[in-house]
Design a protein that fits this description.
This protein is mainly α. It folds into two domains: 2-42 and 216-423, no CATH class; 50-202, 3-Layer(aba) Sandwich (D-Maltodextrin-Binding Protein, domain 2). It has 16 helices and four strands. Strands 2-1-3-4 form a four-stranded mixed sheet, with helices on both faces. α3 links the parallel β1 and β2 (78-83). α8 (224-238) runs antiparallel to α11 (267-299). It is elongated and about 105 Å long.
């Protein structure tokens, strides 16, 4: 026990002298969690507080164009900026290139006229199917309607454009339904559709109640902090390879392994010492980042990190994730021949495992061909275990299926490390 304690003190002294390693272990996760949470939170706020700038050019002089503009305003997703009807498409594009808006809508000049023609044709078809229309000459002028033009800035991602298109289609559907109802009502009653009845028919949609799925039955909506703080804590844990992997390589190069063979001890004691020392560091990393999410984020206008009810589960998951990170760092140090190799291979491999493990791209968005590779990444199982606690409101027993594969990967890494040490005659 005295040998182990002395070795731990030695490793802690070496660690305190490694300033670059300390920066990677503590400053990097704080910056990552802070910046990415702020960016993601601002994106959520942009989508929820009508701050998506949109230029709208209404070249239609009829009622349908005005109704379309009103329907877009009621979507609650855009901040409209009206432009004059005589402005050219080139001038609108120039305003978008100057970041005056990221999207623009152009309503064609004959929008009202052609929409009424389409509504009349649809009403006649419906009445004929009901047996109330005997006129066989039913024309359909819908093919002649000039589509509404949507201009978007190239910086918009495809998923965001799809959301915008869905919102605009909803607004357009409202305008079309109004015209069709008016045409059907007039054909049946030969009078205009009353405004009160029109509002009742248009606004009679069934509401939608959003309920996040949780294991504990709570309905707390996860925020940006719940997503990002655990993810980048895991990322930071594995980046101890910069310090720990380099430390193992230095000990190989300066002859520490050989000197240990001449002493009445075993290098396995040194390996256990490194694992315990750096496991403590990973736990401190998690405690620092979580504390920042709880106390610092609210003072900066960011959502507060809400810890799960099962604190014991969080502690155990953190220790297991830290042990896996430490084991991986030691394995890289054992097989690397130089400190540069350890730093380069370790950093690149962690970024790759983060990419396929769900930290950079959500796991549900991964292609099916990446499923097997994703499950080989220890960061994937770390993240899933944390998400089961932070996002789903689960307990330790609920994430045990994520912990078991993580323990299996950790043990496999330990065996590979021992094999490498024996192959190099270091133990």
């Amino acid at each position: 026990m005295f040998k182990l304690w002395s070795t731990i003190l030695k490793d802690m002294r070496i660690l305190t002298r490694d300033r670059l390693g300390l920066v990677f272990m503590f400053v990097m996760p704080i910056v990552l969690a802070l910046v990415i949470t702020a960016v993601q939170n601002s994106t959520f706020e942009m989508l929820n507080t009508n701050t998506v700038p949109m230029l709208i050019c209404n070249r239609d002089t009829g009622e349908a164009g005005k109704q379309m503009q009103t329907a877009i305003e009621k979507v609650g997703m855009f901040s409209l900026k009206q432009v004059t009807p005589n402005v050219t498409d080139k001038e609108i594009s120039d305003r978008m290139h100057s970041k005056d808006a990221v999207i623009a809508i152009i309503i064609p000049a004959d929008f009202t006229q052609k929409l009424k023609l389409k509504a009349d044709a649809t009403a006649k078809k419906a009445l004929k199917n009901f047996g109330m229309q005997t006129d066989a000459a039913v024309t359909n002028d819908s093919s002649q309607i000039q589509p509404i033009t949507l201009l978007y800035h190239p910086v918009l991602q495809e998923s965001f454009r799809h959301s915008i298109q869905g919102a605009l289609r909803s607004a357009l559907q409202v305008v079309q339904n109004k015209e069709v109802l008016k045409s059907i009502y007039f054909a049946m009653n030969e009078t205009a559709l009353p405004d009160s009845l029109e509002q009742d028919l248009i606004n009679s949609q069934i509401g939608i109640v959003e309920i996040p799925v949780s294991r504990d039955g709570s309905r707390n909506i996860p925020n940006a902090s719940q997503h990002n703080v655990p993810a980048w804590t895991v990322f930071a844990m594995f980046f101890i390879v910069i310090s720990l992997g380099g430390s193992v390589v230095r000990e190989k190069l300066n002859g520490s392994f050989v000197r240990l063979k001449t002493l009445p001890t075993n290098y396995l004691v040194a390996l256990i010492s490194k694992q315990l020392s750096y496991l403590f560091i990973t736990f401190i990393q998690a405690a620092v980042v979580f504390s920042m999410g709880i106390w610092l984020f609210p003072s900066m206008g960011l959502p507060k990190l809400n810890l799960p009810a099962d604190i014991t589960g969080v502690v155990i998951v953190t220790l297991i994730c830290g042990w896996c990170a430490v084991s991986y760092a030691i394995m890289i140090g054992v097989f690397a021949k130089t400190q540069e190799q350890a730093n380069g291979i370790g950093a690149v491999s962690i970024v790759l495992m983060a990419a396929v493990g769900g930290l950079l791209v959500p796991s549900f968005a991964m292609p099916a061909s990446f499923t097997f590779v994703m499950k080989l990444s220890p960061l994937h199982w770390c993240l899933e275990a944390y998400y089961g606690l932070f996002l789903e409101g689960g307990k330790l027993k609920d994430v045990i299926l994520n912990i078991i594969p993580l323990l299996g990967i950790t043990l496999a890494i330990q065996l590979i490390t021992l094999f490498g040490l024996k192959r190099k005659n270091l133990i």
